[in-house]
Amino acid sequence: MEPEEREDRTPLLKEPQPDTVPACCSARYNLALLACFGFFLLYALRVNLSVALVDMVEPNTSLAKNTTSNVCPEHSSAINAPRNTTGQKYSWDADTQGWILGSFFYGYIITQIPGGYLASKIGGKLLLGFGIFGTSVFTLLTPLAANLGVGYLIAVRALEGLGEGVTFPAMHSMWSSWAPPLERSKLLSISYAGAQLGTVVSLPLSGLICYYMNWVYVFYIFGALGVLWWFFWMFLVSDTPETHRSISHAEREYILSSLKDQLSTQKSVPWRPMLESLPLWAIVVAHFSYNWTFYTLLTLLPTYMKEILRFDAQENGFLSALPYFGCWLCIILSGQIADYLREKQNFSTVCVRKCFTLIGMIGPAVFLVAGGFIGCNYALAVAFVTISTTLGGFCTSGYSINHLDIAPSYAGILLGITNSFATIPGMVGPVIAKNLTHNVRSTRVRNCALCSMKIPLIRMSTWNEGSPFKNRFHPFQSRS
């Protein structure tokens, strides 16, 4: 793939560059902000079930039934009962809950590669817009599906996954036409940081909605907001700078001139060279490894906070959101730092991507493994999970953007390929964790702390040791 080689050798653009256009009120940063709100809602729609499920399941059939001798003691003077108890309760055992939480990813994995391919053909605007719109509509139908039966709920969640599966490849495809090379880290970190912000807001907000209202409103409120966002997206966004209605001439020329040697003119997709590319498969390994822990925490952290650490409903939502607030800050700051190092300090793109991926992979592994041995020290448990998730934010400016570095014309398809493999942890992680903690028989409480994360952590650390930073299998290995 010759365009990859040229980009890899000249990522810092040693040749004279076009004058930059101010970021304030620019079309490219407006796109980043609107995308940020889109991914905010996308992850709010994805994680709200993790909180609502705690309130949907009858207490005597929850995970706590099997771990009463191993959970931590109550640490607050009183745990208030929810003010609203009108929500329907379901007799779902731990296995069923695991399948419900994982069902989203069975749809999500199907549309990754088709989403990247379609985005390269028809543009990312329609694909991303209707992906979030469809997810919102099915979210509105979630309470009805739950009443009809667990099979209907699993089907609706899988359909939500189908809609969300096209979103990240579509956004990567759009940025291949919108992001100047030296602004990639900043623009992509702003847009994708919305995912973490959505988690930060939706976890505590979902808990409050369950506490004061009814769990069904968790799905109604976020679903309605997603439909509202769709109207703004369709009206304000264009696939390319050339078709944007209000972009300034200076900004259009700046973006087009900075990308003129970046994009391929080849009409067909070079599938074979892609699949034979070692850098691509190394990104697959890195993406898979990171997502195992990320998705396990995303779906099971509220359950861990309630059943193991025994925080009440209000504390649960806020403490479950704290790690993702740290990650959101880290994503924003690391994006600024990455482009500063590349543009002002003359660090190579290869070096920056390596270092940020290293921090974002090893850091979370160390703190989560340590978290498995701290027992019922509540402050340390929350601190370790928060630090771990925060450090993971460095990966956004590491391997997560590397698709645009190695082949910007096919970035959406490349992300679809890597994200297909990276979705597998979301499918099997919750099921495995729920089964591993179905009957916890250890007599020592310390062995139960973070027990729902231990096996995924071991699996993640095994991948980390072998792949993304080892010799010839390095995703950012220079080919010059």
TrEMBL record:
Spans through the membrane: 31-54, 99-119, 126-146, 187-209, 215-236, 278-298, 318-335, 355-374, 380-401, 413-433
SUPFAM superfamilies attached to this UniProt entry: MFS general substrate transporter (SSF103473)
Catalyzed reactions: D-glucuronate(out) + H(+)(out) = D-glucuronate(in) + H(+)(in); N-acetylneuraminate(in) + H(+)(in) = N-acetylneuraminate(out) + H(+)(out); L-aspartate(out) = L-aspartate(in); 2 nitrate(out) + H(+)(out) = 2 nitrate(in) + H(+)(in)
Main localisation: membrane
GO molecular function: symporter activity
Membrane topology qualifier: Multi-pass membrane protein
Protein name listed in UniProt: Sialin
Gene: SLC17A5
